[in-house]
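User: Sequence in, structure out. Go.
Assistant: Echoing your sequence, followed by the structure tokens.
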Amino acid sequence: MVLCNIRYLSFTTYMRMPKYCLLLILLHTYLVPFPQVDTNLLKKIYDRAINLNETKADSILYYADYIDAQSKTLHFGNGDILSIRLRGISAELKGDFEEAARYYLRSLGLARSLKSQIYISSALTDLGILYVNTNNPLKAKEFYLEAAKLPMEGKDVSEIERNYSNLGAIYNKLHEPDSALHYLKKADDIARPYSNQLDLSSLYNNIGNAYFAKKEWDKSLNFFRKNYEANLMDGNQEMLWYDCLNMADVYIEKGLFDSARKYLGLTEQITRQMNSKSKEVDVADLYAKFYARKGDYRKAYGYFERWRALDTARVNEETQDLITELQVRFNVKQKIQENKLLALELDRQRLRSRNITLFAFGLGMVALAVAVFFFLIRRSNKKLKEQNDLIQKQNDKLAELNAEKNSLISIVSHDLHGPITSIRMWNQILQTDASNFNEEQKKALARIDSSAEHGERLIRNILDVEKAETNRHKLSLEHFDLKIFMEDVINAHQPMAQSKSINLKYDAEEKSVYILSDRHLVNRICENLLSNAIKFTPSGKSVWIAVSDARDAVHIRVRDEGVGIPKSELPALFSRYSNISSRPTAGESSTGLGLSIVKRLVEELNGFIQCESEPGHGTLFTVVLKK
């Protein structure tokens, strides 16, 4: 189910206001000369900006600058706190949570110095939402409780309803539906007399989710349907998406699959209109649950794979070590065969030298030379034939060993990939109904999923390295926007970076950067470089990703503040199983396969890769691909 948190509008009550009114506010902002700007207009601009979504993050920053500049002209004392809060919201929508937290804390400090309950409440709510978005619901609960405990005097109804609704949402997230309903019913009692003025969509969404957690399907559906009808009239696409997805989930639980399919289709349609990758993840996840409940496991698995492709992969060290050990054993065996071939070659060289000596000696033996010469040549040729036969047998044996190796790779690819995929699918089905599990059981399910995911990654790495010459990827060229593509790659690695408190910073040109290439191979290149950068960067540092257009080529740069690589090790960096002295900063496992794969994939795309590094000062990888 999907939960809603609400931001509070400090000046304008959050009513169902016609969109053309908001448009007039913006037109007024641009068309009226500066002398006519007053504090009321700045407040209206602020109230408008606070409701913009992630696609308008830069616009929010523009409004913050405008309010800041005009406040100084008007000597508007509260202008600082308004512009600082907007900067925090803009940073949060861009995924720069550390920067957002700094602005929110500055906003809270200013609010407390002004002793303004409304500004304090807004700042506490912003910090709560920030911790929800960074998967720390317990910390978010602390801020929401503090906001709810503020004195009621001077608060309007929408602010009180917002505080209680947010507390309900966070208790839903903590799987405590009874506590959630306690606060949500308080919010409903306070807001119901003003239902014609206030937008209660988020409140009813959260109440529906609480009853869903309690398995009271009809009560849950009643609230979602009420929301759906109201938001359908208002044309609120964002809330309609929540309503349709949640109603589809209820119908799945009730076994009414036709109704569930109808609302899943509506949710998918809205997702395409909004072009939201995060919403696409939730839709794929619910489709997997829908088909699993119907017993159509083939389709369930298809949507599960689609969800997995959009989600972030994790690595299991134990499985990776096992596969690495197999690779090392094979390398040792191959080295033994190479040494045998070298010994045979030396024997042949010795025989050749001996023949030359015998030939010279035969010339000195005039009478006996011819007979001895032919005799020795005959014997030498016989031995040479024996040696060549032996070499041929060794080559045949090597070919057999190589075939066995390829057979092993096929077994790893086929026999292991199938069970691992099955494990992941059934584990996902278990997770869809995990409300009856305790915390240890939920952790066990997460570890199962992580182990299976890592197994798939390792199998793919072995196949990429060992079968590069015999099973190359068939290029599938398409024209796509590399700038948007890279945003998806970065979003997929955010959880991995957040787990180490690493900031991912994206620097791209304002215009689109189009490239004609294989999307799959480019994704593999970027995934390897970005996951390596996170792996070798200490906690609290940053990783920069940049995309730039250079006439007939594009440049992809990944720079970290990691441990760096000694110059003496750079020449062997892209070789198979390279063993460099730099180690991952959090004990992560590294097989030395990733950069070898990256180099091969870049060369397949007719590009090249460069590395610049210095120990203690990080590493910069630059990939250049032809358009």
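User: And one key feature?
Assistant: The chain has four domains: 18-153, 171-275, 317-431, 477-626.
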